[in-house]
Amino acid sequence: MLGLVFSTWEKYLAGHFDAAVLQAYREALAGQVEARPLAGRVFADDAFMYGLQVVSQRTGIHQQRLLRQFGHYFITNGLTRHHCAFLLSQTSCARDLVLLMRDAHIQMAKGPDGLTPPVFNYTYLSEDHSRSKILFRYDSPRALCGWFWGAVEGAAERFKEKVYVKELSCVTRGAPHCYFEVQFQARTAERSRKTPEQRARWEAQQRLAMLVKTVLPEHEGEGMTLFELQGKLNTLNASSQPVRLGQLLEVLQMLQHAGLLASNANQPGDSLETRRYWQVPAAMGQR
Description:
heme binding, alpha+beta, Heme_NO-bd, Arc Repressor Mutant, subunit A, H-NOX domain, globular, 7 strands, NO_sig/Golgi_transp_ligand-bd, single chain, Heme-NO-binding protein
């Protein structure tokens, strides 16, 4: 499971409970997950599940309720907004964001770190062109269905929309799959709230991301370090402003959280100077 999940989970715990809950969680996971985990690292799924159990016991809140609250928080908090900016920038409504999450999960599973994000399938139930009513089948051996429910609600809040979620069946109650009937109610389109400066920065970031995807090799053995990539980009962009390391690292992190790039960051002896990056092949049918 991505370190982004763990770092966001710690933020959620710190903001919703007293300090003793976060301390008990950290003590329970000592040796498995470092305090203040880095977003780009990968940790064992079992560590998160055990931490969830500890928090549930400490607070008296059912695990699925915690997951639903956290799923909502995960979509709306600033840390996710920063690291997942490449994905979030491609959507303009809650429905499209939820469907893009599915694409991102499939893509991340193709990387070298053994990630197994939950996959969900869907069927449109709307009889009109809006495709606003959808039946989701959510498959997760870890029973993280509450997280999905909360993420749908968080996506609606992000775009100031309404959403109605009806749980039809759940694996935690003995069903073979979790089914959700979801009705999205999108707002009338409005102008972007970005200032001209924000839009200019966003467009420059998107251009750099596209260029990085073009330059990076497709095989791990040919991966490039941060400094090699910076040199290559500055050679190609000789007539433009030089690419700064901080700017490039931010873009690399965003592309990794979209499942489009891989690195050896989780290998022994990793350092920023020696870490190598390469492209992850696009999953069949991905955009």
